[in-house]
Amino acid sequence: MTNELENVRVAFLVANEGIEQSELIGPWKAVMNAGGKPELVAPKPGLAGTMQHLDKAGRFPVDRLTADARVDDYDAVILPGGVANPDLLRQDKPAVEFLAAMCRAGKPVAAICHGPWTLIEAGMVAGRTLTSWPSLRTDLRNAGASWVDEEVHVCRDGANPLITSRKPDDLRVFCRELTNVFAETCLAGAAV
């Protein structure tokens, strides 16, 4: 374990169903291993269900409801993918408002796979460059973003750092970059 993210509070913003399990567990472990404090934030209490591609997988306890999430309580946000997860999440008004507020506050956001759908709903992609699962390319362009086909892309052109990746195969570099950017951004803010 390292201390790169010591005391950095990270909201894993998810719906209660359809989360791609590897895209939750991989970044969660990266945050924990770097000394960060992850919390699972979802619209409903109880458990959040994950998938391994199209098959049901594990269930994980929700730490906080989206309606109760506040910008001052977190230093960064991670948006795991899965097809159903972000599609359901972008319909939850408190989740969308929380995400937009985090972006406007300059706090870093990392999104993988279909995760950028919630960023689109929050109105936070115009003028930004992102990568994602390829089927989101048109959605992102229609929302005013530029799309690139890269393992990971860090966009600093906007209110906050935005780290995006395409798919589970990109998790190693995604986790490395989000850890680096979160450490640089969150700890620099704490030193001010």
Characterise the protein shown here:
The longest helix has 21 residues, at 171-191. The chain is globular, with a radius of gyration of 15 Å. The mean pLDDT is 95. The chain has one domain: Class I glutamine amidotransferase (GATase) domain (Rossmann fold, 3-Layer(aba) Sandwich). The protein is α/β, with parallel strands linked by helices. It is 33% helix and 25% strand. Helix 1 packs across helix 6.
Outline of this structure?
By secondary structure, this protein is of the alpha/beta class.
Q: Layout of SSEs?
A:
Layout: E1 9-13, E2 19-20, H1 21-33, E3 37-42, E4 47-52, E5 55-61, E6 64-65, E7 76-79, H2 84-89, H3 93-104, E8 109-112, H4 116-121, E9 129-130, H5 137-142, E10 146-147, E11 152-155, E12 162-165, H6 171-191
Parallel strand pairs: 1-3, 1-7, 2-4, 3-6, 7-8, 8-12, 9-10
Antiparallel strand pairs: 4-5, 11-12
Helix pairs in contact: 1-6
Task: Record keyword descriptors for this entry.
Rossmann fold, alpha/beta, globular
Number of domains: 1
CATH architecture: 3-Layer(aba) Sandwich
The chain-level mean pLDDT equals 95
Write down the secondary-structure element order: EEHEEEEEHHEHEHEEEH
What Rg do the Cα atoms give? 15 Å
Class derived from helix and strand content: alpha/beta
Silhouette: globular
- The CATH C-level name is Alpha Beta
Distance between the amino and carboxyl termini:
26 Å
Unreliable segments (pLDDT under 50, ≥5 consecutive)? none
